[in-house]
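Record type: monomer structure entry
Structure origin: computed from sequence
Chain ID: A
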Amino acid sequence: MPDAGLSYRAAVSKFSALTVLVAGDFMLDRFIHGKVNRVSPEAPIPVLSHGRDNVMLGGAGNVVANVAALGGRAVPVTVIGDDEAGVQLRRLFDARRVSHDGIISSAARSTTRKTRFVAQQQQLLRFDEEVVAELTEADRRAVVAAFAAELPRADIVILSDYGKGALAGGVAAELIALCRAAGKPVLVDPKGKDYGIYRGATAVTPNRKELGEATGLPTGSDAEVEAAGRLLRETCALDFVLATRSEEGMSVVEAGRTLHMPTKARAVFDVSGAGDTVIAAFALALAAGCATDMAAEIANAAAGIVVGKPGTAQTDPDELLGSLSATDRSDGPSDRVGIARLAAAWRAEGLKVGFTNGCFDILHVGHVAQLEDAKSRCDRLVVGLNTDASVKRNKGEGRPVNNEDDRARLLLALKAVDAVVLFDEETPLDLIKAVMPDLLVKGADYTVDRVVGADFVLSRGGEVHLSPIVAGRSTTATLKKIVSLG
């Protein structure tokens, strides 16, 4: 059952204890990078001067890579070719410390390899080496046996169908039946027009185009996506449908409700493998105890990160929490190690990180104005919050009025604040050095030379901003007014 009180941070922290069984079409994604400076004299085509090669896990392999990158334990099960590409595939799993005992090499199959030629960040050509065919009877029996052997340890199952034949000819239906009998949720990334082959799965995750093709219905608007999703859910006996909608986000169609979520992507660089990220993150979140809407929010955030990266990419828990933090208002303060990783993930994403600090006891409009001013100058704002003990040392007996957990929760309820971290030291200098902000903000009752950490931030090319003070608004003034009222 979903945990209604689960926060994003608590959900993501559970990923490392979860096992995801992944079956389907595994392949290699090869990227050949170079430069184009001329057109061939032999034909009107560009000449690519070779630079470097990258080989990555593709297809269902990218689902495994995403699960592993997010901290989960991924267990791949499939049949691949007994060939050089298959050897490369196993080496890539070894590099990620993913066991591939459930992968069967067969002389009857060929390992799919897709080679993309790239110049100046632009794909020029894709060259596919593959043979699309159903499994032989011997290979089918072997993969079903391997799947059944791994199933008891799995928390959730993903079937990743790329239409290469590993799940064709009734294999998908057989694996779904095993999952249902074992009480394991199973999500399917589908292919083709006949979704009847996935009947009885927990959910399918088509994109908008695939949803339209599977149902024969238009999928341009929210209402049309909902209608198509409901038809698919009913005809295929699914618990729900998760439809990805490119730049418009995604939709979850359940029996009694439909949720439409806008995309969290800031800039789209490459959509390769985004669907693999969605189903991997969604599966982990669902297995962690998230309700479908929360799991979809997590998957949406993960997809928004990877489409901003070149090639077949993944994200990790720190990046994911960085993207989710603006939405998640249920968490208490972060720990110092976590906030340092979070700030680093934000910077890696190209975001400007700001920092300010204070007691924030009895939150008032002056506090809010300063925080909003700070956030207007950065993408993510971290607030260093004095512990109760340090407030008492600085302010005297009777302070703080509100304890540190309450003060942190109130700050996190503000739209301007992305993260809160406690500090107990005399000054926040060590915390500032851990966060390494691009922007340091204090009130205008300070001067730059008196701002703790200013030298450190400026030495790194950052900036220091003195935020205007709202006259007559302070915790001390508020307390005096309360006392005057008796």
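Annotation 1: The first strand starts at residue 19 and ends at 24.
Annotation 2: The first helix runs from residue 8 to 13.
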